[in-house]
From TrEMBL, chain A:
PANTHER family found in the cross-reference section: ALDEHYDE OXIDASE 1-RELATED, XANTHINE DEHYDROGENASE
Molecular function terms from GO: iron ion binding; oxidoreductase activity
Keyword Oxidoreductase: yes
Record-linked SUPFAM superfamilies: CO dehydrogenase molybdoprotein N-domain-like, Molybdenum cofactor-binding domain
High-level lineage: Bacteria, Pseudomonadati, Pseudomonadota, Alphaproteobacteria, Hyphomicrobiales
Record's protein name: Putative oxidoreductase with molybdenum-binding domain
Automatic annotation (TrEMBL), chain B:
PROSITE patterns associated with the record: FAD_PCMH
PANTHER family membership: XANTHINE DEHYDROGENASE FAD-BINDING SUBUNIT XDHB-RELATED (PTHR42659:SF9), XANTHINE DEHYDROGENASE SUBUNIT C-RELATED (PTHR42659)
Protein name from the UniProt record: Putative oxidoreductase with FAD-binding domain
Pfam family, one: CO_deh_flav_C
SMART domains linked to this entry: CO_deh_flav_C
GO molecular function, one term: FAD binding
Keywords: FAD, Flavoprotein
Family matches, as Gene3D superfamilies: 3.30.465.10, CO dehydrogenase flavoprotein, C-terminal domain, Uridine Diphospho-n-acetylenolpyruvylglucosamine Reductase, domain 2
Residues of the FAD-binding PCMH-type domain: 1-219
């Protein structure tokens, strides 16, 4: 190797490691080699194993539970039922609002509101013994009719979500006057998070201190829930979640099974491990809710939208509340003088749905982005052209300027890379043999969700750097970008930085959801690292024993782990040498992004609830990430099978902290979007309210063979209004708009408009 | 899964003796047995591991016949050079079945014993009624989610689809299964449900599949397997067809044709009406499509699976057209 090569390699590595560099995931080797120990892989002395027994009816009462045979089975320690498990306090919701504090919470159900609800638990010495004994537990039910289908006349209570109503102008009158009308109903299906790592936990009590090893997207929030359930101080709960094998929104809350395990551990005085089976991962917690939306569009003959009337409904369980807000981005995609959107939910005998990647925005995009495609077809306009005709120059709802909106650029760059200009406009006009070829486009958006976080940065005696935060890495790259941020701020190589995440006793962080974590935590780490560096430089300049003392300099710089004058013309020390001369074993700084004067109570609330999230339209700007997807599909003319053969997506997530990881996130979202467009569906037997495809053979996730080359292009520019370092959300954005782009491409291929997801073959033959 | 005793058979005689024990079930690749035991569908008293028996995994192919040992792995047969050249439909059916991991584990004998994917059959805790599991208990599928269920060979007792691919190709080419004392056509080895849905295979206590034999033929040499499904890989067929074609010297008149269907029937389904309609005919697309429709004679749907009646003939036609083009 020549000297020239060495220099070249060093500058390459510096470029990779800087914020904005394409550094590979620092946790990658540990995961690939199996060295990464996930939460439930803890090996504990005296661990007992719990297996749940689930209701086989969707509605009714558990009259009795026969446990004698299970109790007598080999290795069984206990069988707990609603009558015998300890009662807990009701925890507050995720805004921190107390719920029915006078009542108690029984994590095993006597009153059944969905099929698969946990009604008993068997705890045994081994997992196999618990499984075997659980099959011997027999329940007797008083069954009631189940409400299982959205809008089939048997559905339960319909609740208007008034807070989601958006109206301006006079939508009804403008629709009536518009020369061009379009009215359509769009349905999206129930879908599962389907993370490869199942839900589960290990719970261990030591006196009134509780340690929980559990995959978590929100350590502080879940720790609060455990503390409230058991009536112990927040500080007495330690949640540990070093790695997460996929969350997608499902792992942000402590759930009923979590309470069962923690209660059993307390009652038995032994650590208890409880893992949901794969099937239970489809039935014990909800995925994306089924939605239905009606869109009425009025336009003039040039394609300018005059009015949008949108009515949405999503399913929810009999207890609890989660709204899949299908109007969430309907109001911001296009400029319209008149608009009306309302949302209902319908109560059904289903498990409480959960946020799943871009909750609301994803089905919302399916409605509006298909509808505008239909309008383009009706008017004989190019689908891209109609989007530009109706381009919203400001937020039409908030009436505020966009912080940044590179959507026009996304359309242009994406169209160019895809070759959109060569599209033959007529449906069913492109083919290769038996394959009908279709090209479709759709846009997407995701609001910039902001909150506050804190981080600790330690400069150690040997020059190494430690970063600590109770935030988490579920594959999106937190370990990596925080190492990059600390390294760049401190002027040390990434190899000297170790990032520690996933322990609620570390510096606090709020929920990892809504694509907010990277923006918050890079800001917090940058701040903590800057403070630590300031302290280090201050000590170096003021200590008369050090060579910098006589420099008359007012600052020093650190580069490649060495500290010296900013011009590099004076004495130089490694950080380790400096620390040794200072006689310090560490310099530690805690940085947070909270405003000065924030009280302790506000801090607690910021980290353990979502009540202090900052609205994306706060102040003068409306902040969103944006994207445009260009998709090619091939539809077999005889079989109706749809294969996505090409995807080009141009995305605006602002500044990227690590483009390689951002692209992976975007592609993951696009793949999930292909799944929801074509394959995935939680199928329910309407007579029983039972999910019948609760396994990975029958619940169709895309395989590698279903995924074509995906090209993602960043069109973002730094957005100073969205985060400290200029980034906007990445993780959720990629999925938004994929399903309508595919549906629009299917229409272009076949001339058939499918408004019900997933687009399975029988809908096209 | 309940406790069971485990026996390892070192030779075929030991396996046959053990297989005659009450509640005994054979374990080869385990991809069906272990799965169904975990679902609570089967509760063997004794599991007899035959995977260590020597000599049962041979694959011997000549122009006259393919002889495949019961313990040959699906992936080995799929990748066997002579199977690919002399029985392409067999190789293609195997490649399109299951996943790479499953094909590496599953055996040919075990593949013939694969059970239905009917979700009601597979979930005894939630759906106690299943005539296949509990004769006389009823059928939970009828009136339920039936998108994947059969339209051919169904009865009031059962509409569960035979899910496999390999056996469809075997039935098309008149393969036989060797049970030791008895030898049966694969087509007869599988039983349509009728009033006895619990009987899926003509196999008796103490019988062990040792091999299958596929007669060589011109139609087998010019054959293909087309499998249609929503997902490109790792999904059971919405409809599939194994087709073999032999043409006269003129290159367009059908001398021999074999057609069998998967994904639409309660057993691997030979479509003789299609074969009879095309023998002696000159191939053209209209004739092929018309004849292919005959495969659906007697089809009965249960709503959500109605599409299969339209789909299956198109799969047959595509396969014949593909073979015709390669003339």
């Amino acid at each position: 190797m020549t000297v020239h090569d060495v220099k070249h390699a060093a500058s390459d590595s510096a470029r990779l490691e800087a914020v904005g560099g394409r550094l590979s995931r620092v946790d990658g080797p540990a995961k690939i080699t199996g060295a990464a120990r996930y939460a439930v892989e803890q090996q504990l002395e005296g661990l007992a194993h719990a297996v749940l027994v689930d209701s086989t009816i969707a509605a009714g009462k558990v009259v009795s539970i026969e446990t004698q045979a299970a109790k007598a089975a080999r290795g069984v320690i206990a069988v707990l039922t609603p009558d015998t498990i300890m009662k807990l306090s009701v925890a507050s919701d995720w805004f921190g609002n107390p719920l029915a504090p006078q009542r108690t919470f029984c994590p095993l159900a006597r009153d059944v509101t969905y099929c698969g609800q946990h009604i008993a638990v068997v705890i045994a010495e081994t997992f196999e013994q618990a499984v075997s004994a659980a099959a011997l537990v027999m329940a007797d039910y008083d069954q009631a009719p189940a409400l299982v289908e959205l809008g089939d006349g048997t559905a339960g209570e319909i609740i208007s979500i008034e807070g989601m109503t958006k109206e301006w102008g006079n939508a009804q009158a403008a629709l009536a006057e518009a020369p061009v009308h379009l009215s359509a109903v769009y349905n999206t299906q129930r879908s599962a998070h389907a993370a490869i790592e199942p839900h589960g936990l290990i719970a261990r009590w030591e006196g009134d201190r509780l340690t929980i090893w559990e995959p978590s997207q929100w350590l502080d929030g879940m720790a609060r829930t455990y503390a409230e359930w058991f009536g112990i101080p927040f500080e007495n709960v330690r949640l540990v979640s070093p790695y997460i094998g996929g969350g997608f929104g499902s792992k942000a809350l402590a759930l009923a099974h979590s309470a069962v395990a923690a209660a059993a551990a307390k009652m038995l005085g032994r650590p208890v491990k409880l893992m949901l089976t794969r099937s239970q991962n489809f039935t014990s917690y909800g995925g994306r809710a089924t939605t239905r939306q009606t869109i009425d569009l009025g336009a003039d003959k040039a394609g300018r939208i005059q009015s949008i009337i949108h009515r949405g409904v999503s399913e929810v369980s009999l207890e609890g509340m989660w709204v899949e807000a299908v109007g969430s981005i309907t109001s911001i995609m296009y400029d319209t003088p008149n608009f009306s959107s309302r949302q209902d939910v319908v109560r059904l005998n289903t498990v409480l749905p959960n946020p799943k990647r871009a909750p609301g925005e994803n089905p919302s995009a399916f409605g509006i982005e298909c509808a505008i495609d239909e309008l383009a077809h009706e008017l004989g306009l190019d689908p891209l052209e109609i989007r530009l005709i109706n381009y919203a120059e400001q937020d039409p709802h908030a009436k505020k300027a966009w912080s940044t909106r590179q959507l026009r650029e996304a359309f242009a760059v994406g169209a160019e890379a895809f070759g959109w200009a060569k599209r033959s406009p007529a449906p069913r006009s492109m083919r290769a043999g038996h394959q009908l070829i279709g090209w479709g486009v759709a846009a997407g958006a995701y609001p910039v969700q902001r909150a506050h976080g804190e981080a600790v940065v330690k400069i150690m005696f040997d020059g190494s750097v430690e970063v600590e935060s109770s935030s988490i890495d579920m594959g999106q790259g937190t370990y990596t970008i925080l190492a990059q941020t600390a390294a760049e701020t401190l002027g040390v190589p990434v190899s000297q930085v170790s990032v520690k995440l996933g322990d609620s006793h570390f510096a606090r962080a709020g929920v990892t959801g809504g694509s907010r974590l990277a923006g918050i935590m890079t800001g917090a780490v940058h701040k903590a690292a800057s403070q630590a560096l300031d302290e280090l430089i201050g000590l170096a300049l003021s200590d008369p024993r050090l060579p910098f003392h006589g420099l008359q300099a007012n600052t020093l710089a650190v580069k490649d782990g060495r500290i010296g004058s900013p011009r590099g013309d004076g004495p130089e020390l490694s950080i380790a040498e400096l620390m040794s001369m200072l006689g310090r074993d560490r310099i530690e700084a805690k940085g947070d992004t909270l405003p000065a004067g924030t009280t302790a109570e506000e801090r607690y609330k910021n980290y353990t609830t979502i009540a202090m999230s900052i609205p994306h339209t706060e102040g003068d700007y409306s902040r969103h990430s944006w994207c445009a997807h260009f998709v090619e599909v091939k539809v077999d003319e005889d079989f109706g099978t749809v294969r996505v053969s090409r995807v080009v997506s141009a995305l605006d997530s602002g500044r990227l902290y690590n483009p390689k990881l951002a692209e992976s996130q975007w592609k993951g979202g696009i793949i999930m979007g292909i799944g929801e467009a074509l394959l995935e569906e939680g199928i329910v037997d309407r007579r029983h309210g039972r999910t019948v495809n609760s396994n990975f053979a029958d619940y169709m996730l895309p395989t590698n063979a279903d995924i074509p080359d995906i090209q993602t292009i960043s069109v973002g520019i730094p957005d100073p209004h969205s985060s400290a370092l200029g980034g906007k959300g990445v993780g959720e954005l990629g999925i938004v708009g994929v399903a309508p782009a595919i549906a629009n491409a299917v229409f272009h291929a076949t001339g058939k408009r499918v408004r019900d997801l997933p687009i399975t073959l029988e809908k096209l033959i | 899964m309940r406790d069971f005793s485990y026996l390892r058979a070192d030779n075929i005689e030991a396996a046959r003796n053990a297989a005659a024990l009450p509640g005994a079930m054979l374990l080869a690749g385990g991809t069906t047995l272990i799965d169904l035991a975990k679902c609570g569908v089967v509760e063997p008293a004794t599991v007899i591991d035959i995977s260590h028996i020597e000599g049962l995994n041979a694959i011997d192919v000549t122009a006259d016949r393919a002889l495949i040992g019961a313990l040959a792995k699906m992936s080995h047969v799929a990748d066997h050079a002579e199977v690919k050249s002399l029985f392409p439909a067999v190789s293609e059916a195997l490649w399109q079945a299951a996943s790479a991991q499953l094909r590496n584990m599953a055996t040919i004998g075990g593949n013939l014993m694969q059970r239905t994917r009917c979700p009601y059959f597979r979930d005894p805790a939630n759906f106690p009624a299943c005539n296949k599991r509990e004769p006389g208990s009823g059928c939970s599928a009828i009136g339920g989610v039936t998108r994947g269920h059969a339209v051919l060979g169904v009865s009031e007792a059962c509409i569960a689809t035979y899910p496999g691919d390999l056996a469809v190709a075997l039935v098309a080419f008149d393969a036989e299964v060797d049970l030791g004392e008895r030898r049966l056509k694969v087509e007869d080895f599988f039983l349509a449900p009728g009033a006895t849905a619990e009987q899926e295979h003509d196999i008796r206590p103490g019988e062990v599949i040792t091999a299958i034999e596929i007669p060589g033929s011109a139609a087998a040499r010019r054959s293909t397997y087309i499998k249609v499904r929503d997902r490109q890989s790792y999904e059971f067929a919405a409809a599939s067809a194994a087709v073999g074609l032999e043409l006269e010297g003129d290159g367009r008149t059908v001398r021999d044709i074999r057609v069998a269907l998967g994904g639409v029937a309660t057993k691997p389904w030979r479509a003789r009406a299609v074969e009879d309609a095309l023998k002696g005919k000159a191939l053209d697309e209209a004739t092929i499509r018309e004849a292919s429709e005959l495969a659906m004679q007697g089809a009965v749907d249960h709503g959500a699976n109605h599409y299969k009646i339209a789909l299956a003939p198109r799969v047959i036609a595509r396969a014949i057209l593909k073979l015709g083009e390669t003339a």
